Amino acid sequence: MTETLADFLDRLNHEIRLAGDWGSVADYIPELARVDPAQFGIAVALPDGRLLTAGDAETGFSIQSVSKVFSLAAVLGRIGEQLWLRVGREPSGDRFDSILLLEQEKGRPRNPFINAGALVVTDELLTGRTPRQALSELLGFIRAAAEDDAIHIDKAVARSEAETGHRNAALVHYLRSYGNLRNPPDHALGTYIHHCAIEMSCVQLARAGRFLAGLPDAPRMIAPRKVRRINALMMTCGQYDGSGNFAFRVGMPAKSGVGGGLLVIAPGKASIGIWSPGLDGWGNSLAGTLAAERLAEVTGWSVF
Ligand code: DON
């Protein structure tokens, strides 16, 4: 490519703002409904240690389901293979908060990224720990991955989801009824809601994802074999029932959140944090997905 990556990111930022096609912010968590959709940021961490940014790359946002990547990494690091007795590794083809398959498949969620599966991962995180300890351990994991101690939980977002999160409350009790939840349902739910409420910027996200991209300056968080597996799950399940479309358009492992964040991994090449709060019909960032697609086109970073 003749244009430098830094110049491309600037152009992308301008083009996305000019198009003004933002989608709509999530409104089932009232605190997220207050966010202005007309925002976009991107940060790209590279193997040589450079971090390129454009747009609102330093603005903090609610990472929501992107946190599921880090809870999965922390749990896989701690217990490893046993997790798969409790949660599967197949895309669900259903919405992220669906309960349908949970009854059909007797309380074993399809994968660790749909809400039911992430609640099981959070339950594992709680083994031998209080909710407060589990949260501080997870926050410690993310801070260590990003080498940034400023990363924190937005309490207002957590409170907002706690007041309205009846579907997750249903899921957690459903899991318990099938014997696939060891801790009290309100502990698992409260811990989950709080880790979804972690606030990060694109810069912090790109830095936290370096270990998943295998970048040379990344702190070693978990074994490379586990990193490969997390990337496989991000590729197949990271965007829920929009995962096939995302793989088709972007071709890189990624995880989305309803706050409009995206962590995209180009194995060996880059860790990318993208944010634009407006969502598409699957609950994934509209402009963020477009940005990832354009980035993949110009860099050739699709794994296919
Ligand atoms: O459990 C929820 O509904 C939210 N805390 C997270 C969902 C989410 O981010 C789905 N992603 N696109």
TrEMBL record:
Origin superkingdom: Bacteria
Family stated for the protein in its record: Belongs to the glutaminase family.
Enzymatic reactions: L-glutamine + H2O = L-glutamate + NH4(+)
Class of the enzyme per the UniProt entry, highest EC level: hydrolase
Residues annotated as binding substrate: S65, N115, E161, N168, Y192, Y240, V258
Species name: Paracoccus tibetensis
Listed GO biological process terms: glutamate biosynthetic process; L-glutamine catabolic process
Stated name of the protein: Glutaminase
